[in-house]
């Protein structure tokens, strides 16, 4: 669960940063084309990965439903961070990555 | 129609939404609380807070069934139905219950439940009469004080309007992907629009599914013609074929001895192995058409069906295995499960709850956005001293009645549950009355404010603060009236009760935060150039402040102040 949540959070963070305006509000400088493309791919990739993680923990129907819940929570967190503490988003994503790694290593 | 498709859809979204939004807020609010109805019910019965909790135990099933049957034979020999409920994750206690024969005009008789103490011997029989979480569950589709069929038709029409509003909303949200992460706080109506968009889009799959499946759950009421055609109008025959497990034949007059239900466990385990059971139900005990049903605990399977094994109560023969298997049935069952979420464990249930809250936010921000838009249009009129139009006053009144009223009414319900004397007549109904009386009081105050043209953000702040205080005090009241404090429950691992207290405190924080925001933020971004003589004088008299926020607040304050006169 923590793994899936962290991955989704990073995924939505990446998808947000792939957008011009949000990248600027976090990093002060505009994103390059390459950066935008990479962030988009990473975002979608991590979303798929978090679904795979859930499929590993729960049976298919349950995991699918759970995925939508996880996505709602993760995307909402990204939006709140972007609106009120934009500069903290990249750092939060790094913390989430750490959490994901810890959770992964503990249960694999 | 309007000039363009887009304008037509905007019109449709607005009016489909406005027609039903306040009722929808009630439905969404009650429905969201219903995700935790068993937990709320447990909280509402402090008699069950100590010494009843036990886990499901496969090895003690036979003994528990035997004990239950003996107890019920002694306590309720004339009941139409006995139910022995085993401990489950959400209802962690063993109970023996029975249903009386229905009185004239009733569909079901009153249900009584006695809970077994942890020691396995004592019975807790004096449990306060309270509907607990089931009040909210029924409220969200049966409403209250109305005949059930009428209420369900109203709710169904509101749901249809919501589905239309959802789809038209998606259609008109052209920038749905570009604005996916956009939220611009403190910018007046733009912020309300952003909030409305976010609360809708973040949980869009949920909103669509919950609305659609909500209609599906009552589909045989809304669109019965296909079925009735097949059955020549015989509704009972249709229902019997649809749901054989639910058919409860009236107890026959002839008596016949009931076999020991515990003796059937072997046959049950032949069919189901060691799968956990939810309950054993004996209908028409002691009569010759008695039935003993074993219900499977479907745990986390995405299903709403009740897997049953029905045995004859006199001979012990297996009569039926419950509901029919078919693709159609499975589809219907899955759709029902998606709505009721009975399969969800605590984590998924929490997500459903979050999405339900987003749904409430969606409806509330929608109506508030509408109120702000109308206020903006009438801004000059208001500032010149006339009262706002009836339309605006009505919308403001309804908004405050429902948005502030529902949380306060819920708090009143919980307070009534703990503070009403235990022996008054129709105690459960009195608790419900407390809910609606609170709503009525807030609505009446809003009406009074509206008639005087004195609606203001101050009233919002007052109600929100009151809500914050009442929810903050609720754990304390709960502790005093039940003898178990929050810390005590944490120590005892009673996480359901801990969860209730924590959510209560979180709600208090949220309401307090909202009250604070009502005071400070730019709720209505009144046109800064449109200043009244009063504001200009005030501005001249005060030292120049660089903060536009302060000036806008003055403008807004004075603008609304003038609405009083």
TrEMBL record, chain A:
UniProt keywords (A-Z) are:
Membrane, Transmembrane, Transmembrane helix
On whether Transmembrane helix is a keyword of this UniProt record, the answer is yes
Asked if Transferase is a keyword of the record, the answer is no
Q: Which InterPro entries match?
A: DUF3325
- Can you tell which superkingdom this protein's organism belongs to? Bacteria
Recorded source organism is: Shewanella insulae
Q: Name one Pfam family in it.
A: DUF3325
Query: Which chain regions cross the lipid bilayer?
Result: 6-26, 38-55, 61-82, 89-107
UniProt-recorded name of the protein: DUF3325 family protein
Automatic annotation (TrEMBL), chain B:
Q: Which Pfam families does the record associate with it?
A: PepSY_TM (PF03929)
| Organism name | Shewanella insulae
Give the stretches traversing the membrane. Answer: 12-36, 150-172, 206-228, 351-372, 393-414, 434-451, 463-483, 495-515
- Using the UniProt annotation, give all residue ranges assigned to the region (Disordered): 530-565
- Matches recorded under InterPro entries: PepSY-ass_TM
Under what name is this protein listed? PepSY domain-containing protein
Q: Where is the composition biased (Basic and acidic residues)?
A: 553-565
Query: Keyword Transmembrane helix: yes or no?
Result: yes
Keyword list (alphabetical) reads: Membrane, Transmembrane, Transmembrane helix
């Amino acid at each position: 669960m923590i793994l899936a949540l962290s991955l989704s959070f990073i995924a939505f963070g990446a998808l947000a940063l792939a957008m011009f305006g949000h990248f600027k509000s976090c990093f002060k400088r505009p994103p390059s084309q390459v950066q935008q493309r990479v962030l988009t791919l990473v975002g979608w990739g991590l979303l798929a990965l978090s679904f795979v993680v859930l499929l590993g923990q729960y049976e298919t129907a349950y995991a699918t439903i759970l995925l939508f819940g996880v996505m709602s929570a993760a995307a909402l967190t990204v939006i709140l961070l972007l609106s009120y503490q934009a500069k903290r988003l990249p750092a939060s994503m790094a913390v989430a990555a750490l959490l994901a790694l810890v959770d992964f290593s503990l249960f694999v | 129609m309007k000039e363009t498709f887009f304008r037509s859809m905007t019109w449709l979204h607005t009016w489909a939404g406005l027609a039903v939004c306040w009722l929808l807020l009630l439905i969404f609010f009650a429905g969201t609380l219903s995700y935790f109805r068993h937990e709320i019910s447990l909280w509402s019965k402090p008699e069950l807070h100590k010494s009843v909790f036990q886990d499901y135990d496969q090895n003690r099933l036979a003994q528990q069934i035997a004990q239950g049957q003996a107890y019920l034979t002694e306590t309720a020999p004339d009941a139409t139905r006995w139910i022995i409920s085993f401990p489950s994750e959400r209802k962690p206690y063993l109970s023996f219950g029975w249903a009386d024969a229905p009185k004239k005009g009733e569909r079901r008789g009153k249900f009584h439940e006695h809970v077994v103490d942890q020691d396995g011997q004592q019975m807790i029989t004096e449990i306060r009469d309270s509907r607990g979480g089931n009040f909210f569950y029924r409220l969200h589709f049966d409403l209250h004080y109305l005949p059930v069929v009428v209420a369900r038709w109203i709710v169904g029409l509101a749901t249809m309007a919501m589905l239309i509003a959802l789809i038209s909303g998606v259609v008109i949200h052209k920038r749905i992907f570009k604005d996916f992460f956009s939220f611009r706080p403190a910018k007046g109506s733009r912020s309300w629009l952003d909030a409305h968009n976010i609360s809708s889009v973040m949980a869009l799959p949920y909103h669509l599914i919950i609305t659609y499946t909500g209609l599906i759950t009552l589909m045989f009421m809304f669109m019965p013609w296909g079925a009735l055609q097949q059955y020549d109008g015989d509704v009972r025959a249709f229902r019997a074929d649809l749901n054989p497990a639910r058919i409860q034949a009236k107890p026959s007059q002839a008596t016949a001895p009931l076999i020991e239900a515990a003796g059937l466990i072997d046959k049950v385990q032949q069919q189901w192995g060691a799968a956990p059971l939810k309950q054993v139900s004996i209908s028409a005990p002691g009569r010759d058409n008695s039935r003993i049903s074993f219900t499977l605990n479907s745990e986390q399977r995405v299903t709403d069906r009740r897997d049953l094994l029905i045995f004859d109560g006199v001979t012990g023969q297996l009569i039926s295995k419950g509901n029919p298997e078919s693709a159609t049935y499975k589809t219907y069952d899955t759709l029902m499960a998606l709505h009721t979420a009975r399969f969800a464990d605590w984590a998924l249930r929490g997500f459903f709850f979050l999405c339900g809250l987003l749904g409430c936010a969606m409806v509330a921000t929608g109506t508030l956005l509408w109120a702000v838009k109308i206020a903006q249009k009438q801004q000059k009129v208001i500032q010149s001293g006339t009262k706002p139009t009836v339309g605006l006053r009505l919308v403001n009144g309804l908004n405050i009645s429902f948005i502030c009223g529902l949380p306060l009414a819920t708090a009143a319900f919980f307070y009534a549950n703990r503070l009403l004397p235990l022996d008054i007549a129709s105690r459960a109904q009195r608790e419900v009355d407390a809910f609606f009386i609170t709503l009525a009081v807030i609505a009446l105050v809003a009406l009074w404010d509206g008639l005087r043209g004195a609606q203001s953000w101050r009233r919002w702040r007052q109600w929100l603060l009151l809500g914050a205080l009442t929810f903050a005090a609720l754990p304390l009241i709960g502790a005093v009236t039940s003898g178990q404090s929050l810390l005590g429950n944490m120590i005892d691992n009673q996480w359901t009760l801990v969860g209730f207290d924590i959510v209560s405190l979180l709600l208090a924080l949220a309401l307090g935060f909202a009250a604070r925001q009502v005071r400070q933020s730019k709720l209505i971004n009144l046109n800064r150039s449109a200043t009244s003589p009063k504001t200009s004088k005030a501005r001249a008299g005060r030292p120049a402040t660089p903060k536009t926020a302060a000036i806008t607040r003055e403008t807004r304050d004075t603008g609304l102040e003038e609405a009083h006169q």
